[in-house]
Amino acid sequence: MILAVFGNDEQWNEIKKDITDIEWLRLNSLNDITKDIDAIFIIEEDAITDYNNLSTHYFINSVSRTLKELNAPENVLRINGWHGFLSRSNWEIAGAVNEKVIGIISALNKQFTQVPDEPGFIAARVLAMIINEGWFTLEEKISTMAEIDTAMKLGTNYPYGPFEWGELIGEKNILKLLQKLSTNNKRYAPAPLLKAKNK
Fold it and tell me: What is the mean pLDDT of residues 145-168?
């Protein structure tokens, strides 16, 4: 099986970590695509805008934008390519899952959960809310960033606190998702301090 990846160094290393039975190709450009590739992982978010001429299976990192919004055909699936999500043993996938897709995911030694084509999948939506609550807590001067991170890790046994997670994923990614989600549900409204920091 030949799988290609278009992404930064961190994404490249995370997706292929400990996978030896696959021939990996690193794409420096989307023009490097050949017909012999079984699937392409476009982890660089918003790297592609025209999905109509794609022939193989494409797994795109699109946390905020849905396949419907992108007008993507059935051979395009959404995954979460945020920091840490590619190395998880279970991926959330939105899109048409067929036998070939199952074979590709299996070759990656992953399980998958098929989720509705909605912004934020499930885990990213929950995580964005946790990070947002950290910002509300900071804004209310209840504690410092470091103390809030420590409290979260000790109290919930999470690997990171909300600010550490936000820094790893990218606060702009979190803000973008919260803004998108808040158009339909005000409980996702971003904390003013998070918005001010990421203008």
Answer: 95
